[in-house]
Amino acid sequence: MKLDIDVAMTYRLGPERTALLTLEAARTPCQRVLDEQLVIDHARLSVIEGEWGIGQRRWARVTGDTLKLRYRAKLLVSREAVSLQDLSATPMHGLPSEQLSFLRPSRYCQSDRFEGFVEREFGPLSGGARITAILDWIAAGMSYDPAYSTCDTTMLDTFASRKGVCRDYAHLLCGLARASYIPARFVAAYGAPVDPPDFHAVVQVWLGGQWRLIDPTGMCRAEDLVLIAVGRDAADVPFMETPDEASFVAQSVRVTAA
């Protein structure tokens, strides 16, 4: 599938006039960047590698008090849909060190608080069958509602309210997978069917010896998504970080199937 991405952002920055941006499509075997352009007005730029070897991040130091950028890209996504049901989980003793990092609790995913719950709720299921059951449970019990989500909302909050946005769905899936001893990582992404259009949050789970991309909101299929960066939770992959306060002026994210 060919996807076009068009992002425009304007923010007023604090005295440091500096931002770390995570919004460029990652180059991976199943998503090829055909064309890409990032334009930031009056800025000095430098690039660093994304954590865990996925994507890249860009420092922007602007000469004025406003960060104004336009990011456009064309991609060919060849990620195939995979049935999770029959995929096996890797035993903990067989996991590489990187995957072990994504079994542990994190700031927004208190997975250690849910080990008893997943055993009671999902019983003898394991591997892809358990992830499929967790996804069904989320689909049946969660409501997409921005009124119940802030930048401080954790998995515990979402579990109690059963409401939230894509990052809350992603935290919930990550936490319940980790409580089931299946590595799961939070993914910043673009998705063509996302409504309302915005940066999107999805999940990768380690099944069958590979990372499998899943959208727990059900908005996107794996082949509809463009991966930007990965982390333990939303704290690791914000689209913009600044050393002082930044004020919103304007922002638009548009992803279309070409």
Protein model, in words:
It is a single chain. With 258 residues, the chain is α+β, with helices and mostly antiparallel strands. It has 2 domains: 2-78 and 239-257, Immunoglobulin-like (Sandwich), CATH 2.60.40; 92-236, C8orf32 fold, CATH 3.10.620.30. The protein contains 5 helices and 14 strands. It has helices at 97-101, 115-122, 127-141, 155-161, 166-179, and strands at residues 2-12, 18-21, 31-40, 43-49, 56-62, 66-77, 143-144, 163-164, 184-191, 200-207, 210-214, 225-231, 240-241, 247-257. The strands form 4 sheets. The chain has a 4-stranded antiparallel sheet with strand order 3-6-1-14, with no helix packed on it. Strands 4-5-2-13 form a 4-stranded antiparallel sheet, with no helix packed on it. Strands 11-10-9-12 form a 4-stranded antiparallel sheet, with helices on one face. The radius of gyration is 18 Å and the shape is globular. The relative contact order is 0.23. The model has no long low-confidence stretch (mean pLDDT 96).
